[in-house]
Each structure stands twice: as C-alpha cells, then as structure tokens.
Amino acid sequence: MSEAYVHGYDPRENERLRDQAGTLVDLLHSDTSYPSGSVVLEAGCGVGAQTVTLARRSPGARFTSIDVSADSLAEAKRKTDAAGFTNVQFQQADICALPFAPESFDHVFVCFVLEHLSRPVEALTILKRVLRPGGTMTVIEGDHGSTYFHPDSSAAHRAIQCLVELQRLAGGNALIGRQLYPLMVETGLEAVHVSPRMVYVDSSRPDLVDGFTRKTFTAMIEGVRKSATDAGLIDPESFDAGVRDLRRTAEPGGVFCYTFFKGVGRKIQE
Amino acid sequence: MSEAYVHGYDPRENERLRDQAGTLVDLLHSDTSYPSGSVVLEAGCGVGAQTVTLARRSPGARFTSIDVSADSLAEAKRKTDAAGFTNVQFQQADICALPFAPESFDHVFVCFVLEHLSRPVEALTILKRVLRPGGTMTVIEGDHGSTYFHPDSSAAHRAIQCLVELQRLAGGNALIGRQLYPLMVETGLEAVHVSPRMVYVDSSRPDLVDGFTRKTFTAMIEGVRKSATDAGLIDPESFDAGVRDLRRTAEPGGVFCYTFFKGVGRKIQE
To answer: Residue B51 above 90 pLDDT?
Structure first.
C-alpha cells in the first residue's frame, strides 16, 4: 500500500489538491512545472485553457503550443498576451504531422486531446518522437464513465451516455481517462505513473457546485442536446429529463463526482 | 444484506474482509486517531476488521466495540487479543437499542454499517445521542456505483448490479458512499467534511491488483452468484461472463477503480 502514496493517489493529497484548487485548472495542473530553460511542447492547446497555467507555473520554460485550428490559436494567443506571458509561441500544426525535428523538446504536455482521436497510441508515438530521451510526457484526460451523483438518476446517465456515444461516432473515446496507463505503456514510455484527480462536489463547496457541476459538466451535456436528438440517440423529452436530474445534483443535498486522470511517463534513455 | 452476505459469517467473506483491511487500512484509516484518554464507540465492529487498526492508531484511547453478532464479536476479540491490544472492550448490542447513557462517548466510529440499514439517518441519530457535545462521528462507506474499469464490460456491470439489487432487497443501499454528506447533515452533525478515497489500480501496482481487484472486489461479486441467480436477478451464464470480465481487469493492461467515502462531523455544542 505504501507505494500507493505518491502524488495524487493519496486521498489526502487528492483532497489537498482539490481544496487548494481555486479552479479545476489547479486540481489538474498544480503539480506540473518545468525547469528554467526547458523547451516544452503543448500539443493541442485549443483556446489556451491550460496554456496560461503552464506558462505561469514554469516562467523559465519556453513553450511551443500547437493546434490544428487557427481560430483557437488566435484565442489562445489573446489569452496569454492578456496575462502578460512572453514564454509561449503558437504554431498551427497537426499532431499527426508535426513540423519539428526528432528529439527537439525536453517535455511534452497533452491535455484533453486523446479523447478526440481514434488512434491515441499512434498520436502518442508521434509525440514521443519529438521528445528527447529522458524527457517527460504528461497526459491528462477526463472519463465520462466516472460520473455518478446523488440523487441517482437513470435519465441523467442516459443523457451522459449520449455524449459518450457522439464522441464514439466521431472517432473519439469519452472513457479514455481510465485507459491512460495501458496507452502510455503501449507507447513505450517508461516509469509511467497515472494518478486520478477526483472532483467530489457536495453542498459544502458552493464554488464547485456552481463552477463544476453546473457550469462545466451539466453545461457540457446540455450542449449536445441538438446533436444527440438529431442523431436519433434519444428523444428530446428524455434528454431534458436527464438534464433536469443533473441539475438536481447541484441543489442542496446533492452530490456530484467526476474523475480526471493524469499520467506522466518518461522517454527511455537509449 | 441477505443472510448469504452478512459481513463476517461466511469464512470466505471473513477472509475477504481481512484481505480488504490489509490492503485498504491506510487508505481508509491513516487519518483517524483519537487522543489519549478518550472514550470511543465503534458501532458495528463485525469480525474486527477495523478494530485492530483503531486500537493501534490510538493506543491511549479506550474503545467499546459493539456488534449484534456474538460470533463476530468472538472473532473480533480473538483478533485484538492476538495483536496484544488491551484497550478494546467488546459488547453485544444492536445499534438501534444502544445500552449506553446519553453523551457517554467522546467519539463514534462507524464503518461499513450504514450500507446494511434501511434507515441510516435514524441509526446515526441514535449514535449521536451517546456522543458528547463537541465529539466527532466518523463514518466510512463504499459505493458500488463508483466502480468502473478497463476493459469496460456491460456484463461485468450487470453482475455488480446484482449485488446492488440484493442489498436493496435486503433493505440496504450499496450506493450509500456518495450520500454520506447529506445523510450526516440531515442527522444534525456540524462541520461535516466528506472526502473520497479512491482506489485506482493499474498494472504498476500488483499488490492492489491482487489484494483489491481480485481478492476484494471480484471475490465479493463472485460471492453473490447463488443469491443472485436464486433470486432470478440474472442467469448463471450471464453472471459468470460478468465475473470473467471483472477478472480481465486484473490482467496486464487492465485498470480498476472504486471509491470509498469517509465523513467526519461534530456534534453541536449546546
């Protein structure tokens, strides 16, 4: 059991991470920082939700943040500029066709990207190529199948299942969080360590009730109403009933649970 | 639970509980210790799976450990005697008819008990009565709905659901872990704090693969095969398919997740 008490696994550690988390971002990222002078690739930065946090926690590191979407990159750049960070450069690029020389980064960081890919190990393998031997790869993903709540509701679970199914139809995997360890091992990374980051929300944490249960998770489910009904996965009434029940978990006496997974592995020194 | 699944009666169940306490003891109990001289009620000690740990972590406290079953108490006493602890006294008693004066304990500890009760708040209220104002109540419960794994398997989820259903038919609630916060608040405890204790098991932790995934959780599900099929909840082939899939989560590349919840609250100073 003692080996279980490493960063993030220890429940008290998880609790500490959660308690100090002003936002979800802290829960996920507070234990990531890169040494001064290191060169880090953020693959799939999107609109920069994590980029400002990375730059803030590692002011001496130099980040290259890539995304396939020019629009997303523009928004990410706007965010980091507004926060006054100059240690991030943005570049439009596809993970599957990286415009970088082999072993050109000291570390690689990938967050909420693999869930969208049909061949995650292939993507990790490509990313591993641009990582120098001895460098670390950090991967963060959620897992929608980790969701449970009080009051329990099969209608709410059905609504969540719509998002899982839509993501599957789009070639992704909304249950990928639990798979990080085997995926990273299959990629050939060594010393892989995965730690769950459970978001536990009860009425004693109104900030999380509002910020996570309502405005993050339930809002995300509500966001697929049209896609789910258009795809014939569910009828509108059943979907709405599920969303109503999800909202109830944010009322007094409600409880909501969701778990993210964070994996760190190292490229083998050859 | 049904008679086939009352904690501690069946020798195999007994062994399972011992294995469970062996691997989970730190996860669940490392942050529980009582001051020297304090008087603590352990309500529903069963075969003493937690009693030795309590006694060890609080050598200066005096424990009264109660259970309805004389057989379980005898086994619990054997365990604490064998471990050389003299700070525990055992007494046969029903939580719903406590033979103690009001406010006679400094602290109350209840672990894996509420899941079996149809009126958990009533039980907590009775326990609160024997707690002195300012004293703490600690409650630990699992939540079978917190179970997910890789490879995912609907057959495995159906087998688990049999145990949930059996416990419900017996008047209990196998999903009670997530409800600790609202239940403790409803009991009128103050400063209630609930923390999840997630057991995350991947191939990097062979001790947990064997001690938890195989010998605790999967063994527990296997243990209800006869009850589940006798009750017509599932056919034997489907049940066995579910158990086979659960076992696969303990093979290389498999991942298993389960969460316990621990709540601590205080009796209001009047």
So the answer is: yes
Report the DSSP pairing between strands B255-266 and B148-150. antiparallel
CA distance linking residue B14 with residue B223, whole number of Å? 12
* Residue of chain A whose Cα is closest to the Cα of B145: A148
Q: Looking at beta carbons, which residues of chain B come within 8 Å of A192?
A: 204
pLDDT tens, position by position, A170-189: 999 999 999 999 999 999 99
pLDDT tens readout for residues B220-238? 999 999 999 999 999 999 9
The rounded distance, in Å, linking the Cα atoms of A206 and A116 is 31
Q: Do B202 and A179 touch (CB under 8 A)?
A: no
Contact check, Cβ <8 Å, B23/A1: yes
Residue B146 near residue B259 (C-beta atoms within 8 A): yes
Rounded to an integer, what distance in angstroms lies between the CA atom of residue B217 and that of residue B243? 10
What sections of B88-218 are H helices per DSSP? Answer: 120-129, 154-169, 180-186, 206-208
| Nearest chain A Cα distance for residue B196, angstroms | 7
Q: DSSP secondary structure string, B109-124?
A: EEES-GGG-S-HHHHH
B99 touches B91 (CB < 8 A): yes
